[in-house]
Specification:
The protein is an alpha+beta fold. Among the domains are: 490-568, Methane Monooxygenase Hydroxylase, Chain G, domain 1 (Up-down Bundle), CATH 1.20.58; 582-663, Methane Monooxygenase Hydroxylase, Chain G, domain 1. It is built from 14 helices and 30 strands. The strands form 7 sheets. A 7-stranded antiparallel sheet has the order 14-15-16-17-18-19-20, covered by helices on one side. Strands 1-10-11-12-13 form a 5-stranded antiparallel sheet, with no helix packed on it. Strand 25 (306-309) and strand 26 (313-318) form a beta hairpin. Helix 12 (606-616) runs antiparallel to helix 14.
Length: 664
Amino acid sequence: MKHMKIFLVLALALTLCLAALVMPSASADTGVKARFGAFAAETSDKLFMILPGDGVSSLYSMPGAGGYLTLIETASQISDLVADASGNVYYLRYTGASFQAIMRKTDGERAIVAEFGAGSIAHSLCLYNGKLYCLVNNRLMEIDLTTRAAKQLSGRGMTAYTIADGIVYYESSDDLASYQMPSALTAGATVNGSSGRLYGMMLDGSNDMLQFDQGVSTLFAYDEYVYFHNMGDSYIVSSDTQEWLDGCLYRLNVNTAQYIKVLSQYDWSYRPTDYGLVIYREKALLQADLSGQNEVLVYEPDPYNYMAILDDAVIIFEYNLAQPKLSRINLKDSQTTLLWEGAFVSYNSQGGEVVPTETVAPSDTQTGADSQNTGVTTPDTQTGNTTGQTVNGYTAAGSMTYGATGDEVTKLQNRLIALGYLSGKADGIYGDKTANAVKAFQRAAGLYADGIAGKATINAINQDNAPKASKSGTDSSSIFPKSSTVRLTRDDVLSIDRSLWPYARNEIYARHGYVFDTRAYADYFAKKSWYHPGGFKTSDLNAIEWDNMELIKAMEKEFPNTSSSSSSSSSSSGSQVSTSGDYIFPNSSTVKLTKSDILSIDRSLWPYARNEILARHGYKFSKSTYSNYFNSKSWYKPGGYSSSDINSVEWYNIDLIKWMEANA
């Protein structure tokens, strides 16, 4: 009875605290999720990872379907990788003198969005509602990505935090609870531990209140719940020589103040997702329902690994195996995709974004060049080139590639110069221009164009009848001569045949020397007298060029199967909102929207397009603006809404629109 009385008093206190804090309508009207950093992050077409080196951290990217890594940069420490819906990537970087918050845009440009004073320690980077958050010296900082201004939100000390519905739930570093248990290693001894209690406050630092009167750790918010390890229900974790306390997984309903035990067993890591609760134990990755029931084994990883639990997948790098493996486990169907097996390329201690071994130039995302370029190089028996680890620019099979130096490179360059594929003097360094020249020769010789000078390529290039570079039939024409200096209009694009649109888009890349892997583009631009392949860098593209490529790409999607005659008759005043079923975006529950899709409608409609997704599931709007709007729709049936009915595509679209509202 005594225990029951204590429980009732605690539950009542929690209910009173939470009543002043929770905002029931915020989740539905915003649809924003907090995205926390990990060792890996995914965009629509790329996987980014932080891998350790000899006393440093290196950030890499690779195509989402797998392939070789591209080194982005190296620093004393890189951590907390997170991506937004538009493909931008954020992370924390330690230079050796200070911590910085970095933003890497989709075009590869990187910018310091915040820098913290010397001696400060930053960690736990989070992206929420278009802003970055992190802990600096245990104080929560907010970083505005538009103004790039950082400010401290609260003077309260925090060890960990999570954000949901505009509320910060955090483990206090000021208000600690202590625990002890009998030692499992030493008879008569105890294992002691302490952890901060769970608090909650508004994002502006107001309404700071106790939420759970026990020590907690490892926080995640999902729907109306906050998940955490409850140190009040501790167990001992031990090895042969060490032992410490950890807590069982609990969840607290922030609307009712009820809390339940989710897992009776230990977990090394966990995360609630749209596909249930993901649980990691030694050699076991499992999925259960969000209450911790009905566990199903989905993967058995090596215990030595780096793991990132993302919204719809788990990325695992098992580095201790004889052949290290990088895998992606899809949470929707539990299918495992092997992204890479074997040794990765070594980090470059000089840092900077380079074109590493067996990695081609930039692949197409939303606006880039040749859309068939996957960025993946595979073994090819025709060329004799092999994949695998590269040492000083030479593969295990002795093929020359990026970074090689010496007399053999000089001989190759002189032969490429003689055949017309390379200009200037041989310098003995296998760089971008040499790799691009090798690709051009390989295409002309009918070999696999990977830019690696293997046995078959060397034999072919030294033949007396080796094909020479030819500019026969060249012309100086351009589809849009001023597309690098003048913004195109829809009328401009509609004025040319639909079949020329991809060439008009890639024409912008070609001006900067982009080397095309797709034969159609390579042959087309080879005939242009102004085209000089090699030396391409995305940083050379200006804002007008990016805008023009986005416009053409969007129109290619808008008119996928139309001829020039039907295209030219289309309205040039901007894309019109579809009225199919009186929806703004009829397919936003099944198809991921793009930035161009959202830009095609008036900005005033963006909030309605976002909430349209929720309205399909019967959400009752508290704001009259939305309730009046959706009540006028014949398809809208208010009632029965559950956030668990929102699928991953819908959350993606909500996040993207919300990000556009905050940043466009």
